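Q: Fold this one first, please.
A: Sequence and structure below.
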Amino acid sequence: MSVRRILAKTINTDLEYEAIGIDLAKNCVSVALLTTDGEVVCIDRLDYSELEKSAQVLCPTTFAMEPCTEMNYLVQKLEAWGHRCLVIGGKNVQNYVENHYSGQKTDLNDAQALAGRTHQKLSNEPRYRSPFIGDLTRGTF
């Protein structure tokens, strides 16, 4: 994953994203968008309404988030719009932040860690899935 980190105010819906990490808070979200070119675009404090508006027009992509109360509602909406959702445990995010961001646990670093872990998972995912493995489109790791 690229080291280059770009700060933005809104989600550019014209680009395709490999993974989108979102750190959910009470009134807003922090978002890290990993483009197919390897750039990381970060948005600090995006309103839920802006996230939903952008997600409706985005090409299908993978969203990653930590488990919390807002997660269930958002996952249902995102999957209805054709996106894939992954739920990543807090311990995995914490380990990623410690290893890649000198242990500085901020909302933006959490969102970037979620995007990074999703990129790792997608890179290691086999191209052919046996029917005995089950549906991996939604899972926790």
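Q: Good. Now the second chain.
A: Here it is, same layout.
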Amino acid sequence: MPRAHADQTDRPTGWLGALNNDGIGAALRAMHAHVAHRWTLKELADISRMSRSAFAATLKTQVGTPPLEYLIQWRMSLARDALRRGTRSITELADAGPQVGRCGRADRR
């Protein structure tokens, strides 16, 4: 039991650990790089080279939330940071709709 625990503690957990996973990490990097893109589960699974169900289950296991919920939380985090820094008003963020994650950056996708 202690050896199994020691083996696990050397690896990052959560989304940081998931970034090290070739498939899941590629999808997370894509979501972070192109936050305003209207991602579908199929697109993210394709990036990960996994089936939709395997991708969704693996991301939820590694990160703790389903893929599209993770994306919403990431966008909301960016919007919250923009409000705290004063770079966007709440009206601007509300008007941005699905583009909320841009927070002043151009989406390069």
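Q: Anything worth noting on the second one?
A: The two ends are 46 Å apart (CA to CA).
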